[in-house]
Amino acid sequence: MDLLIIAVLGTLAIAAASQLSDRIGVAPALILLAGGTAVGFLPFIPAIELDPQVVLEGILPPLLFSTAVSISTINFRRELAPVAVLAILLVPLSAAVIGAVLTLLIPGLSLAWAIAMGAILSPTDAVAISIARRLGVSQRIITVLEGEGLLNDATALVVLSSAVSAATSGGVSVGGVLGGFALAVLVALGVGWLVGEASLRVRSHITDPTVDTVVSFTVPFLAALPAEHMHGSGLVAAVVAGLITGHRGPRMLPPAHRVASRTNWHTVELTLEGLIFLVMGLEFFGVVEKVGASALGIVRAIAVAVVAGALTVVIRALVVAPMLKLLSHRTARWAIHWQENEEAIHQFQNRCSAIVRGESEMPPVPWDRRPFAQVQRKLRQATNHESIARRARSLSSRVRRRGADLDYFAAEPLGRREGAVIVWAGMRGAITLAAAQTLPVTTPHYSFLLLVAMLVAAGSLTIQGLTLPALVCVARPAMAGPADEEEKAAVISLLVNAARDVASIDTHGASQQAAPTVLTGAADPDASDTHTATSAPGLDKVSQTAPDPENNESLGPTTEQHGLVRRQGKDVIVSPAAVAKAWADPTWRHDELAPMRERALDMIRAQREALLDAGDEGLYSADSLEHALNRLDYQEIMLTSDPH
């Protein structure tokens, strides 16, 4: 009963902190950390200890999985270089430097144990992402921080495990550490990919969104647990499964499943994040009590924590500054290369289009000769036009993706201002606390090291978290903004063309007795349906031609009166928003609405495929595509709901 009361009170505290954070402008994690610490020091509250395996195996996999599902995979691919530097290079470098300094500050601490402590203090926490996103910084900064948070945990845990092994047995070498890291990552990549693909195939056959959500809750554990048993990184496996789910889910899962899963996962994410910081605050008193009774004392722990915390920021700055300079040089070099080959690229794209139409042979790739030689050999082996056209489309898509990447880098460059935010947003938190508690109890000065880790995490979250808004105001980095009108018009044009393609297919497949079906386009995704006052909220205005009611395929005498259709010349324009509204109205006949409903669904699904293809090539910003996809999802949910 006591445990149940604590759970209820903790859940209410998490909800209250989340609600309060919007009013006072402080992250919920900081409120829970402060509140948990205050409660933990009350005399009638016993010392609380949380098994670190609960955090590492029960809390972190779903948290990382949820973040990976929501991240833009095209942006993650673009930022893979800075993410790799921060997640793979920075962590062991920080562990080594911090470890060397700790050997000088803590008597009797060997280098191996000190490096283990450095590894504990190296990974960043995801709370910085929520703070930075709330401040409105550019999407590039958010993507770099998200990618780093997804991958640096595995690096830190591998370094920690190797350092502990070296401290206890003395039999660990640099080659062994690198080999162990490579094995952990490769196993995690394989298991995560397999679980992600298999889970999507299973979930695509589930008809109930609630059941699908329940199954999705098991995916991070299905990836993490086998990977751990195979000596891989369970956290990286959960991340890979999340990336696969986020990238492939829109093509394989119904909209109702994805909307329900996304809402429920946000609830889980909120609860688990809050639980970590609340328990962290509650544990603080017990650790302080133990260190106070030890020989080193609390004052030394505070001094060591200040030095270690400062080192994490300094080392991060020393790595981020040259990294951004190299990225800037790389982008400039790519841009020059693209400009030099601009005419050849344009001709290449035209030739690829001609190949798809069967009017030309395969052109050379403007800049990439060796891969092209392999393509040429495969093309000579091809025996049909479909195979050659497929390869031409693939190469053309690759060129468009390269151009879109350059536009992305040019639109949101990472300079010194953005670098300052990336450095200061590298806060320590839940991973540091959980990793510290995995140290063997026989570790020299165990309680002292645990208190140092907690002080670094708490100080980092408090100082950097509270001052990050001020830094953003002073540094003035690139900020996220609404999509420009040019991109908005391009997305609308994409939707219109997708609708026309469906119309072409329907026209060619129509029987001679039926009037042709022509999709005339789509309206602004932000616009409401202006055809009728019965338009459903949240649905876009989309136009589609239905068969003329005079040609033996009448859609009912009242459809035009109620705004479901309107005449435009010889065409009859159908409003999916009004059709969706009528679909739930018991006064309408199901068979009367079915033809219009099917036409609207065909158009919506074609538009979704077009948006996803554009997303794979990186032609538009992730926010614009997500907004348009969400609109289409809600349209389809209404049109596929049970009638009446």
From TrEMBL:
<keyword id="KW-0915">Sodium</keyword>
<feature type="transmembrane region" description="Helical">
    <location>
        <begin position="446"/>
        <end position="472"/>
    </location>
</feature>
<feature type="region of interest" description="Disordered">
    <location>
        <begin position="520"/>
        <end position="568"/>
    </location>
</feature>
<dbReference type="InterPro" id="IPR006153">
    <property type="entry name" value="Cation/H_exchanger_TM"/>
</dbReference>
<dbReference type="InterPro" id="IPR018422">
    <property type="entry name" value="Cation/H_exchanger_CPA1"/>
</dbReference>
<keyword id="KW-0739">Sodium transport</keyword>
<feature type="transmembrane region" description="Helical">
    <location>
        <begin position="27"/>
        <end position="45"/>
    </location>
</feature>
<dbReference type="GO" id="GO:0015386">
    <property type="term" value="F:potassium:proton antiporter activity"/>
</dbReference>
<feature type="transmembrane region" description="Helical">
    <location>
        <begin position="80"/>
        <end position="105"/>
    </location>
</feature>
<feature type="transmembrane region" description="Helical">
    <location>
        <begin position="111"/>
        <end position="129"/>
    </location>
</feature>
<keyword id="KW-0813">Transport</keyword>
<dbReference type="Pfam" id="PF00999">
    <property type="entry name" value="Na_H_Exchanger"/>
</dbReference>
<keyword id="KW-1003">Cell membrane</keyword>
<keyword id="KW-0472">Membrane</keyword>
<feature type="transmembrane region" description="Helical">
    <location>
        <begin position="270"/>
        <end position="288"/>
    </location>
</feature>
<protein>
    <submittedName>
        <fullName>Sodium:proton antiporter</fullName>
    </submittedName>
</protein>
<feature type="compositionally biased region" description="Polar residues">
    <location>
        <begin position="542"/>
        <end position="561"/>
    </location>
</feature>
<dbReference type="GO" id="GO:0015385">
    <property type="term" value="F:sodium:proton antiporter activity"/>
</dbReference>
<keyword id="KW-1133">Transmembrane helix</keyword>
<feature type="domain" description="Cation/H+ exchanger transmembrane">
    <location>
        <begin position="12"/>
        <end position="335"/>
    </location>
</feature>
<keyword id="KW-0406">Ion transport</keyword>
<keyword id="KW-0812">Transmembrane</keyword>
<feature type="transmembrane region" description="Helical">
    <location>
        <begin position="174"/>
        <end position="195"/>
    </location>
</feature>
<dbReference type="GO" id="GO:0098719">
    <property type="term" value="P:sodium ion import across plasma membrane"/>
</dbReference>
<dbReference type="GO" id="GO:0005886">
    <property type="term" value="C:plasma membrane"/>
</dbReference>
<feature type="transmembrane region" description="Helical">
    <location>
        <begin position="300"/>
        <end position="324"/>
    </location>
</feature>
<dbReference type="GO" id="GO:0051453">
    <property type="term" value="P:regulation of intracellular pH"/>
</dbReference>
